[in-house]
Design a protein that fits this description.
The protein is an all-alpha fold and 102 residues long. The chain has three helices and no strands. It folds into two domains: 55 residues, no CATH class; 46 residues.
C-alpha cells in the first residue's frame, strides 16, 4: 500500500534543495525522475518500518519461530533423505524376491 501511494503522481515532497525547488525548475515531485525519488523514499520508509518491527518484541519472537521452523525443515529433509535410501533398498529387495519367485 505504501508503495502504491508513493508512486502516485503529485505525492512528492520538497527534495531539500535551496529554495524548495528542484534544479531545472518546477515543483518537487514533478519531472523526469520524480517517480524514482518517490520509489526510493517509499523503499526507505518500508525498510524503516520492517527494521522497527524486527526490533520490537513481536518481531523478535517471529524471527525466533522462523529460525526454529527452518531448523525443523532441515532436520526433516535430512531424515527423509536417510530413510528414503533405506526404504528404497528394502523395496528393491522385495521386488527382487518377487521376481525370482515368479
Amino acid at each position: 500500500m505504501w508503495l502504491r501511494e508513493a508512486l502516485q503522481p503529485g505525492r512528492g515532497r520538497w527534495d531539500g534543495r535551496q529554495g524548495g525547488v528542484r534544479a531545472g525548475g518546477g515543483e518537487a515531485g514533478t519531472g523526469r525522475w520524480a517517480w524514482f525519488r518517490r520509489l526510493r523514499r517509499a523503499a526507505a520508509d518500508g525498510l524503516r518500518q520492517i527494521a522497527a518491527w524486527a526490533a520490537s518484541p513481536e518481531g523478535a519472537t517471529t524471527t525466533e519461530y522462523a529460525l526454529l521452523l527452518a531448523l525443523v525443515v532441515v532436520v526433516l529433509i535430512g531424515t527423509l533423505s536417510a530413510l528414503g535410501s533405506v526404504l528404497n533398498e528394502k523395496l528393491q529387495e522385495i521386488i527382487d524376491e518377487i521376481s525370482h519367485a515368479g
